[in-house]
Amino acid sequence: MTNDDNNDPNFSPDREESPDTGVLLKSRPRTQKPAMYKVIILNDDYTPMEFVVHVLEKFFNKNRQEATDIMMHVHRKGVGICGIYTYEIAETKVTQVMDFARANEQPLQCTMEKE
Ligand code: TYC
What we know:
Blueprint: E1 36-42, H1 49-60, H2 64-77, E2 79-86, H3 87-103, E3 109-114
Antiparallel strand pairs: 1-2, 1-3
Helix pairs in contact: 1-2
The structure holds L-tyrosinamide.
L-tyrosinamide (TYC) is lined by residues 41-45, 47-49, 52, 71, 74-75, 108.
């Protein structure tokens, strides 16, 4: 295979040894996994359980059982993970949940933290 018809997305000419000069360029990682962020909800004494279950179904694609399990975990432990996403998706989820909670006059808090 020549350098011109390489279809490997991980291919980088920087990693190749030159057959002409014998110079070995310093190898480097060629792909980076994106940083991932946990979207977290916090417990409070006021937001109804059913509202939290609804949020988990609506914004985090959980089924009723999964949503109930996460909600009860947060209710008991104080904090819980709704999902893990790339930065922009996580940020969007946090904004959606905070806007929805505010619109419904609920104090539910949602935040994100790097994994
Ligand atoms: N603790 C709330 C109640 O007893 C329920 C609740 C659960 C609130 C999870 C927020 O993130 C939360 N009504």
